Amino acid sequence: MGIGIETLGDLANSDPKILKSLIGINGIYFWQYANDNRPVLDYNCKKVIQTIGNSSTLYRRFV
């Protein structure tokens, strides 16, 4: 017996209260992830380095 959710779109359009009653707090988390509209990140894409810094940490304090 299924609950009729087969795709991410089905999950996004479902009622979060019903999801919580069926699978607990994870139902709310899944619903939030399904409705997240942030852009998808490509982890294979390398970001361009904006700045390069040069610093040193000394072993003891020099005054």
Short description:
The chain is built from 3 helices and no strands. The protein has 63 residues and is an all-alpha fold. The termini are far apart.
Helix content class: 25-40%
How many separate helices? 3
Radius of gyration: 23 Å
Instruction: Report the span from N to C terminus.
Output: 74 Å
Describe this structure in words.
- With 63 residues, the chain is mainly alpha-helical.
- The protein is built from 3 helices and no strands.
Please describe the structure with a list of short key phrases separated by commas or semicolons.
63 residues, mainly alpha
Summarize the SSE layout with pairings.
Blueprint: H1 8-12, H2 16-23, H3 25-34
Helix pairs in contact: 2-3
